[in-house]
Amino acid sequence: MLVYLTMKKLLLLLLPASLLASAVTAQAPELDSMIHRANRLGVFNGNVLVADHHQVIYKTAIGIADASGKTPLTTDHRFHIGSIAKEFNAVAIMMLKAQGKLKLEDKVSLYLPELPAWAEKISILNLLQYTSGLPDLNWKTAKSDADIMQDLKDLKQLNFEPGTNYAYNNNNVFLQRRIIEKITGIAFNEFVKRYLLEPAGMNHSIIDPTEKDELMAISFTDDRQSRSLFSPISGWTAVTLDDFYKWATSINTFKFLSPADTRTILYPAGPNKQSGLGGGEMKGDSIILHIHDGSSLSYNALLVDYPGKGRTVILLTNNRQDNLYDFNNAIQAILDGRPYQQPKKSVGSLFKGKLDSLSGKQLLSLYQQLKKKYSDQYNFDNEAALNMIGYDYLGRKKVDDAIVIFEYNTRLFPQSGNVFDSLGEAYYRKGDKQKALLNYKRSLELDPSNVTAKQVIEELGK
């Protein structure tokens, strides 16, 4: 078989190791300049790690560790990573499956017989894929794991039949953790520490941290209000940059799971949905992409990993601005030697509290007014701003308003496969399969790597 190399790749292969290191690290000053500029603009406070060609080429901490502003962040500070911490229970479930201690087809009732009859319908795979039909936690009243379990014991019926729909919520995560405890006979936190953190060399991560723990970054709002670390559900791992990188490497080198079992929790149940590992793509037995974001309180975290390139981007913040994907885009551009856009504040923050009262058309009118006024401070030049608003409408079941937003976004960004994918999803939810198919096909034309579009086109074609 003939193998063709681009000139750039050939030169990289021919370069001595010392010169290759210099070529790779030459991008570090530009990365540093972009991150520091963002901090001066007030749009990033947190820690960053960038690896390329399997080398960490940039690592920094910038900003403050808590609302007081008295303690600077260091690269040793730990951050909550929100939903990314759900990877630990997903991996644990698959480890137990590989050991023959459970089957993904097993019903929840087999391990938690104290739950009502609905537990006889939900499989462990339903929990992993968020297709169980369980409602979300009662965040207003639940104060502990015991409260959550009691709420589940009192639950009369599911929101839908397991496997027929999708609802991303933490009751699925809660029951995964309880099943792990029932099978292993030890607390979930102890299992994570003993069988995941320690084997991965994640010696500085902690589970369910408090404000008293050393080197714990505390999240805060823009008006310097501190956010409590309390959560009614236990089992959340907080990590450092180095530990997070070790975890990402453990996933893409299959330290804990086989490629087949990794695939089960990397691919979601359907288009635009979350899996246990967030999302990504595999080619054969290799991971091509692993991407996952998470939020909790005013924390926000993002992992973007391209194992084949040896490229990893980790972003951790304790002052959430909803702009980490913008930072990743800028970082990827810098690494590829392309022009990039300096991240700004997220436009979404300008519309908080307005989506309930405004229609899609009214919001677009306001959007255009604000764009003229605040274009120097907020990022109106990124498709993500309106995409997030469109998905917010979808979450509120205001599908027609979402379509108005997404259609306008396709006119602003006609070469983006992602915006046509979003519009396709909105039409799909509305039941207009013809327009859904049309937009998914356009998305795939613009982005041939869009696995979701391929799946939906195949489904609709049938």
Layout of secondary structure:
Elements: H1 7-14, H2 17-25, H3 28-40, E1 46-52, E2 55-62, E3 79-80, H4 86-98, H5 124-129, H6 145-154, H7 170-184, H8 188-200, E4 206-207, E5 237-239, H9 241-252, H10 259-266, E6 279-283, E7 286-296, E8 299-306, E9 311-317, H11 324-336, H12 360-374, H13 384-395, H14 399-412, H15 417-430, H16 433-446, H17 451-461
Antiparallel strand pairs: 1-2, 1-9, 3-5, 4-5, 6-7, 7-8, 8-9
Describe the structure.
Residues 1-28 form the signal peptide. 43% of the residues lie in helices and 11% in strands. It has helices spanning 7-14, 17-25, 28-40, 86-98, 124-129, 145-154, 170-184, 188-200, 241-252, 259-266, 324-336, 360-374, 384-395, 399-412, 417-430, 433-446, 451-461; strands spanning 46-52, 55-62, 79-80, 206-207, 237-239, 279-283, 286-296, 299-306, 311-317. It has two domains: 28-343, DD-peptidase/beta-lactamase superfamily (Beta-lactamase), CATH 3.40.710; 347-461, Tetratricopeptide repeat domain (Serine Threonine Protein Phosphatase 5, Tetratricopeptide repeat, Alpha Horseshoe). Residues 1-23 have low confidence and may be disordered. It is an alpha+beta fold and 462 residues long. The strands form two sheets. Strands 2-1-9-8-7-6 form a six-stranded antiparallel β-sheet, with helices on both faces.
